[in-house]
Amino acid sequence: MISYLSYIFLIMCVLVSVAFFTLLERKILGYIHIRKGPNKVGFIGVFQPFSDAIKLFSKEMNMMFYINMIFYIISSVVLLILMMSLWFLFSWDYNQILIEYGMVFLLCISSLSVYVILFGGWSSNSKYALLGSYRGGAQVISYEVSLSLWLISVIFFCGSYSIMKIEMFQNLWIMLVGFFNLLIVWMVSCFAETNRSPFDLSEGESELVSGFNIEYGSWNFAVLFIAEYGNIILISVITTNLFFGDMGVMMINVLVVMVLFILIRGTLVRYRYDKLMMLAWKVILPYSIVIIFLVCFLKWTFMSMFCVFLSKK
């Protein structure tokens, strides 16, 4: 019972964090544009996210007759459930559930998001939403392959599927030191997986007419919004655990990765779609295969040196 209560408390903290992360993003983007961000609602705009949430959840929901209503409603809710279920990966100080094969669980749950995008676009019965869902589905599938290979590399090097044991392994070897190039490619893939700039092709505001979520409004859009930003926070925590270990204060490292998402959005322009696919299949995928062989060689070398050291001792 204590495990489930602590998990519910964690989810409540994540939802509150999503609210303030949106405020942080709007503030930083405002200063990038040489203007002020939200600063009217409450002290320096601190209540702006709650004002936006009340507005979205109190708006009238348009029920168009041509929408496949069941899948239309379920899609946004399922995306939120998938985001919340991924927080089972982490074990905090209050006897939460510890998943031994956490990385396998991460790959299984994250790969389901493509179905939400496809069903969301299809159930809207709009050609603009359908085109956006096709693009988003192809993008997520393409980068999911490379993401899986990088996780396999980290799992093989650390010798465990548990994200907590991978973090403990970094007491001996911090992954950031030897695999900084892997971190860069990992972040590129995470931008594509979370549909963030410069890879936000499934949610483009101009040329895609807002992508697969064009027909979503009111609380449905708010749920999609919460799920997207919750995934960004989740990816930031996973990146910190996989590459930074115990180096410094964990929450500061997580905040640095979250701010990186915002800075990339305010700096880089959106990729053209053919370049996005070329980057996935012709650059990142071959590089990830080379990384796997390199990790295997390093693992074999370290094990051989360790065995020689033990034999001499």
Automatic annotation (TrEMBL):
Locations listed in the record: Mitochondrion inner membrane; Mitochondrion membrane
EC number(s) per entry: 7.1.1.2
Transmembrane segments: 6-24, 65-89, 101-122, 143-164, 170-192, 221-244, 250-271, 283-311
InterPro entries listed in its UniProt record: NADH_UbQ_OxRdtase_su1/FPO (IPR001694), NADH_UbQ_OxRdtase_su1_CS (IPR018086)
GO cellular component: mitochondrial inner membrane
Pfam families in the cross-refs: NADHdh
UniProt keyword list: Membrane, Mitochondrion, NAD, Transmembrane, Transmembrane helix, Transport, Ubiquinone
UniProt keyword annotation of Lyase present: no
GO BP terms: aerobic respiration
Catalytic activity: a ubiquinone + NADH + 5 H(+)(in) = a ubiquinol + NAD(+) + 4 H(+)(out)
Cited HAMAP family: NDH1_NuoH
Entry function: Core subunit of the mitochondrial membrane respiratory chain NADH dehydrogenase (Complex I) that is believed to belong to the minimal assembly required for catalysis. Complex I functions in the transfer of electrons from NADH to the respiratory chain. The immediate electron acceptor for the enzyme is believed to be ubiquinone.
Protein name: NADH-ubiquinone oxidoreductase chain 1
Organism in which the protein naturally occurs: Ixodes hexagonus
